[in-house]
Design a protein that fits this description.
This protein is an alpha+beta fold and 457 residues long. It contains 7 helices and 10 strands.
């Protein structure tokens, strides 16, 4: 009877297990698919985060380029104003030259008439006639002195006009050279503006592409999330069905076993005793729990004695973890010491007059542009300056031009120079053909609009 009950129970369990095996197989497949979907979703979100960081970086670069573009456009406007002013000065100089030449011609004609009267027409008789026309010696001397003064006046006037014309011509050449230098600077700034606009356009395009990629990736993420939700719901449904089937199989097995036991009649007590004995033997054979008579507790096989805190964390009673000492190092002194003075800076800078101008260069001997020249000169005295002229316009302390001292920075639109005193500057100029481009000294620091004077030392 006992064997018949066992066989019946096993038959029911096998039948139920076949149904549950199919369900469990599909559940396992869905779990694998869900794991893959989850990994794809995580990878997509990671890609979106990377694109977001890329856009943030591009926006920061665009903002910086925008600021550079604004500064460049301001410099171009200042240079346009300086060029207009210089053209006005050139026109004024041309008018002065024309007026001086006219005055010289007029004075020369008047002087010729006087000379003709006194010398050409009179010849050696001029003094004789002068004596005859004089009533006495005093009148004669007065006429002679007057004649001598007129002669000296004519000579001085002529020399003065000759010198004036010479100065006006020199000034005209200088103004034309300064205008050419301003136009070269303007061309350089315009090229820089075009380059900045290209960079901004490229980075804006890259940012737009990244935004489009984010939109597409977000769409994929939404699809992965929806699929994962469906897979999770299906897994939960199959899991619930599997558990219900297992429970139903167990209940049917128990019911069939109970019915068979009841039909057995008098052998029930013996069979229960045998079953209890078999269950006890099976429990001991599994080795899951052992009873300790000394303290009346159960111990799990293979476990080690450990001490835990109230949260279940293992306490290291043997203190096997060593303490580690941490020390901070590499602190930097924020104070900076400078050597030299403004006069020393000015004197040092003049040593490199005659060396070439090189756009983007910082070499005092092989070539530098205006800001590279200033940066390298000050670096010799332990002063670190920014690289560009419009950044150097914000260093140090601002002073008025009337208070400028040797070594101060004279800042223009897109250009910077070192003040030497007496209205003179030393700077790396790209002007051509006059005066020649390169590191040079200019006698007029105010040859164009001064935006700021900065004292660094």
């Amino acid at each position: 009877m006992k064997k018949r009950i066992v066989c019946l129970t096993l038959a029911l369990l096998i039948s139920a297990s076949q149904v549950m095996t199919v369900s469990a197989s599909r559940e396992e497949e869905l779990r694998e698919e869900a794991a893959y979907t989850s990994s794809q979703l995580d990878a997509t979100y990671s890609y979106i985060n990377d694109l977001g960081a890329q856009i943030e970086s591009l926006n920061a670069e665009i903002a910086s380029l925008d600021q550079d573009l604004v500064n460049t456009m301001v410099n171009i406007e200042v240079l346009n104003t300086d060029i207009s002013n210089k053209e006005a000065e050139i026109q004024k100089t041309r008018k002065n030259l024309k007026r001086a030449k006219a005055n010289k011609e007029k004075q020369y004609e008047a002087m010729k008439l006087r000379i003709q009267y006194l010398y050409e027409n009179g010849g050696s008789n001029a003094w004789y006639n002068l004596m005859l026309d004089s009533n006495d010696l005093s009148e004669l001397l007065n006429k002679a002195e007057y004649t001598q003064k007129m002669y000296k006046y004519d000579r001085d006037a002529l020399n003065k006009y000759v010198e004036t014309i010479k100065e006006i011509k020199t000034l005209g050449v200088q103004l034309n050279g300064e205008k050419a230098e301003l136009e070269d600077m303007k061309a350089e700034q315009e090229a820089n503006q075009a380059n900045l606009e290209v960079q901004i356009s490229e980075k804006q395009s890259a940012a737009n592409n990244a935004s489009n990629e984010i939109a597409y990736a977000q769409q994929q993420a939404n699809e992965y999330a929806a699929l994962l939700e469906e897979q999770t719901a299906e897994i939960q449904r199959l899991e619930a069905e599997r558990i219900a089937a297992e429970e139903e199989a167990r209940r049917q097995a128990e019911a069939e076993a109970a019915a068979a036991a009841a039909a057995a009649g008098g052998g029930k007590n013996q069979e229960e005793a045998n079953n209890q004995e078999e269950d006890t033997d099976a429990e001991d054979a599994d080795g899951e729990e052992d009873y300790t008579e000394e303290d009346g507790t159960y111990e799990e096989d293979g476990s080690e004695d450990v001490v835990t805190d109230e949260y279940g964390n293992v306490i290291d009673e043997d203190n096997t973890v060593e303490d580690t000492d941490y020390s901070e190092s590499g602190s930097t002194d924020s104070s900076v010491s400078y050597s030299g003075s403004g006069s020393s800076v000015a004197d040092y800078a003049t040593q490199f007059v005659g060396n070439p101008y090189v756009y983007g260069g910082t070499s005092l001997t092989n070539g530098a542009d205006c800001s590279g020249f200033v940066q390298s000169v000050y670096a010799n005295f332990g002063v670190s300056l920014p690289r560009t002229s419009y950044d150097q316009m914000n260093v140090g302390t601002e002073v008025s031009y009337s208070e400028a001292q040797p070594g101060d920075l004279i800042c223009y639109g897109g250009h910077v120079a070192i003040y030497l005193g007496g209205g003179r500057i030393v700077h790396a100029s790209n002007s051509a053909p006059y005066p020649a481009g390169g590191i040079k000294i200019s006698d007029n620091a105010a040859y164009r609009t001064i935006l700021s004077v900065r004292r660094v030392m």
